Amino acid sequence: MQTSSQILAGLVGVCVGDALGVPVEFTSRVERLKSPVETMRGYGTYNQPPGTWSDDSSLTFCLAESLCSGFSIDAIASSFCRWLNEAYWTPHGEVFDIGNTTYDALERLQQGFPPVKAGGTDEYSNGNGSLMRILPLAYYHKTLDFPKLIERVHQVSCITHAHLRSQIACGIYISIAVCLLQGMAPADAYLQGIHNAQEIYIHPLYASENYHFYRVNSGEIDSLPIDDIRSRGYVIDTLEAALWCFLNSSSYSEAVLKAVNLGEDTDTTAAVTGGLAGIYYGVENIPKKWMNQIARIEDIIDLGRLLEAAIDT
Fold first, then answer.
1. 48-87 pLDDT tens trace
2. Do the beta carbons of residue 138 and residue 176 sit within 8 Å?
3. What is the helix (H) or strand (E) element at residue 278, kind and residue range?
4. Which of 128, 109, 118 lies closest to 14 in space, CA to CA?
5. For the residues 17-28, what does the mean pLDDT come to?
6. Which residues cross the membrane (predicted)?
7. CB burial class (10 A; 0-12, 13-18, 19+) of residue 144?
């Protein structure tokens, strides 16, 4: 698979998963079992037309666009604020979904806090708001050594989510994504990804947090029964659920629909799942009928080309 298709597949993979989940966000798993999502829906939770994506994709695109001009934590933070204040990189010119932790952090940014000090650091600031948008950093795996890449992942997480737990979740996710970009199959990418990440997180700085990741780091997250997989907005739940859906599927569509039909934080679980599934299965295996419904799809395709060009220079 060519780098260009991997970049576009990851961005579209996030976005399509997100859009599939938006209409049923906050619905229960019981509701989803009764009426499973099988294709792109509209309206529902936020009364948005089919193909509408949320803050998950908006902030992913803000990060990707910022990276087109090189890595600048200030530029990334400014782009996030532009999204909030100007509805930049939104599907229809309005911000209709934002987490409290992200909102509070962006408010602090606008009060003059430096980006790496803006994100919440308390125990309750471990929502999935940085994990959902972190994928574009994986594409720099060829130009940065692994510890430097993970350092930047941590910095970008800290813009909104600065607790070590959120930083580690982002680092593990990017580590697995990098292994997929290197051509590994899902199970191998998962095992190698957690191994590579553990070489970073063995440092005493992270010792107090590692037990939160014991199910992911066991190498057996995919063997858990569905009833043991939680799908609310907690960052650990989202990482576990996304890996479980990805590893227990054999296509992009199966992976993201499995994620949506877990219920609760449907858009983010599917977006995080969709990023990995998009990279592995390729943009050509994301259903065209879904892609054709995505708002601003041509802009997203153009963004993928810009990021490809930036990485190649």
1. 999 999 999 999 999 999 999 999 999 999 999 999 999 9
2. no
3. helix 266-281
4. 128
5. 98
6. none
7. middle
Distance of CA 78 to the CA centre of its chain: 19
Cα–Cα distance measured from residue 246 to residue 275, given in angstroms and rounded to the nearest whole number: 10
Mean pLDDT of 112-119: 97
CA dist 218 and 127 (Å) reads 22
Terminal Cα distance for the chain, rounded: 19
Cα torsion 177, 273, 184, 4: sign: negative
Residue 195 token pair: 């191994």
**270: amino acid identity, one letter:** A
- 3-312: CATH topology is ADP-ribosylglycohydrolase fold (1.10.4080)
Kindly tell me the burial class for residue 178, based on how many C-beta atoms sit within 10 Å of its own C-beta (0-12, 13-18, 19 or more). Answer: buried
One-letter amino acid at 257 equals L
The model's pLDDT over 135-148, given as tens digits with 9 standing for 90+, comes to 999 999 999 999 99
> d(Cα 217, Cα 59) in Å, to the nearest integer?
27
Question: Token pair of 246, please?
Answer: 């990805």
- DSSP letter string, 102-142: HHHHHHHHHTT--GGGTSB-STT--BSTTGGG-GGGGGGTT
* Range list of H helices, 141-265: 146-158, 164-181, 186-201, 214-217, 235-247, 252-260
List the domain boundaries for the chain.
3-312
Does residue 2 carry a pLDDT above 70? no
- Residue 132 phi/psi, 5-degree rounding, is -65, -20
Residue 291: closest CA among 101, 6, 12: 12
Q: Are 9 and 52 in contact (CB under 8 A)?
A: no
| Rg (alpha carbons) of the chain, rounded to whole number | 17
Residue whose entry in the numeric block shows the structure tokens 């907690």: 234
- What is the Cα–Cα distance from 221 to 157, expressed in whole angstroms? 23
Q: Which residues pair with 43 in a beta bridge?
A: 48
Cα separation, 302 vs 310, whole angstroms: 12
Hey, what amino acid is at 62?
Answer: C
